[in-house]
């Protein structure tokens, strides 16, 4: 009896479990055993598991649907990484997920992978400078701000047009005169009503009217004539993340604010440091500080020298022309008379100038705020200017070289403490310490005017030069030239020594201008 009861209980338990299993099959998704290979698939998106399915035929379609659902909730274009994969296995039975659950998990993973939204935008390129803006309206506002500094009456407007030489999507900026554009449009409309001979007759009458006498001062337009960008402005359509777009007010400040840009000024004939300072609008002290070749305001300039100058310029430069009426004094051009027997550092004013007075209509050209040209289109001279007449030399003056190779500077030109008894307290040359017997060369070609004993200076050689200057060499040990002898620059004239009043072997060297000693160092350096 007990065995029968146990058997009934065991049967009851099996039936109960079978019923529970059947209810579970009907209530949830399961896969059953099929001898057809893998039937239980782990679905992954971007390496993360999003669920389990019994069939993978719709996985790609589900991924597309998940991407579409995300895109529909975003205002702007979105970019995201989306890669689906799966691993399969063969099971007798197993629990699987609903497609809606897997789809929801796909969306969750993909949203985490969404890159910053990309929006339709525009990149403005000016040479090496680039700025990204959100719309063509902002682009036009930026460029309008650049020209607005010079167009107070708002006669000109920026237009964006497709660049015919580039692919579609590339625009270029043009500045149009709105008044002129309106007049041209009205003129075209009028021409539609004119026919053949009538049109020709009207056109000819206009041409004739233009040549009926010279224009008076009041006939000129005056004011702003033209305006354009100095550099080519390109505008390229793009899709960019919001973080790369620049606020309009910040872009305007960047484009219109003047930047310190380095440039080079090449010294021309007749230039002085003062004139260059005025030309480039840089204070003298600042100009000297920027250039190592300049020691002070008296530094010697040579044609072709290059000076570094810092010019303030905005990222986008504007070229413009303005026509105005002036009543002004003016100077006539200087008249030069060349004298082939004079050196280029010699000149003499033959006639003093006198300013004239005139009325003019002039067109002034600018790059930003800097005047780059001026053309007088009408002039009425009230009083003629008298030209300045200058006679100038054409011969290049002699140059000077160091009289010895090497040598250490031991005493400069000018006041000093007397180095020894009998020596001068005002040094009229420079001393170059060098061993006795060092070759002394002519610093400049000329004629020997003295060669012999010079008292405290020991043995000396004096050489006179074509430009009236003189060089002197003292404390020599041996003289190799005679009075009246012609010598060339660099020719050996003596040997250094320690004669006269000295504290050691050296060469004393002087340069005289108009019979007076000057510091020789600037001449030989």
The helix tally amounts to: 10
State the helicity in percent bands.
10-25%
Counting helices, strands and paired strands, the structural category is alpha+beta
**CATH superfamily grouping of the largest domain:** Glucose Permease (Domain IIA)
CATH class of the largest domain reads Mainly Beta
Uncertain runs are 23-28, 207-211
How many β strands by DSSP? 31
CATH architecture of the largest domain: Distorted Sandwich
Largest beta-sheet characterization: 10 strands, antiparallel
Overall 3D form: elongated
Q: CA-to-CA gap between the ends? A: 134 Å
Radius of gyration: 46 Å
What is the CATH topology of the largest domain? Glucose Permease (Domain IIA)
Fraction of residues in β-strands: 35-45%
Q: Could you tell me the mean pLDDT?
A: 83
Number of domains: 5
In short:
The protein is of the alpha+beta class and 525 residues long. It has ten helices and 31 strands.
Task: Walk me through this protein's architecture.
- With 525 residues, the chain is an alpha+beta fold.
- The protein folds into 5 domains: 33-113, no CATH class; 121-183 and 214-251, no CATH class; 258-314, LysM domain (Membrane-bound Lytic Murein Transglycosylase D, Chain A), CATH 3.10.350.10; 318-395, Resuscitation-promoting factor rpfb fold, CATH 2.20.230; 408-524, Glucose Permease (Domain IIA).
- Helices cover 24% and strands 39% of the residues.
- It contains 10 helices and 31 strands.
- Strands 20, 23, 24, 25, 26, 27, 28, 29, 30 and 31 form a 10-stranded antiparallel β-sheet that branches. The protein has a 5-stranded antiparallel β-sheet with strand order 7-6-11-9-8.
- A hairpin with a 5-residue loop joins strand 26 (459-464) and strand 27 (470-479).
- The protein starts with a helix and ends with a helix.
- Residues 23-28 and 207-211 have low confidence and may be disordered.
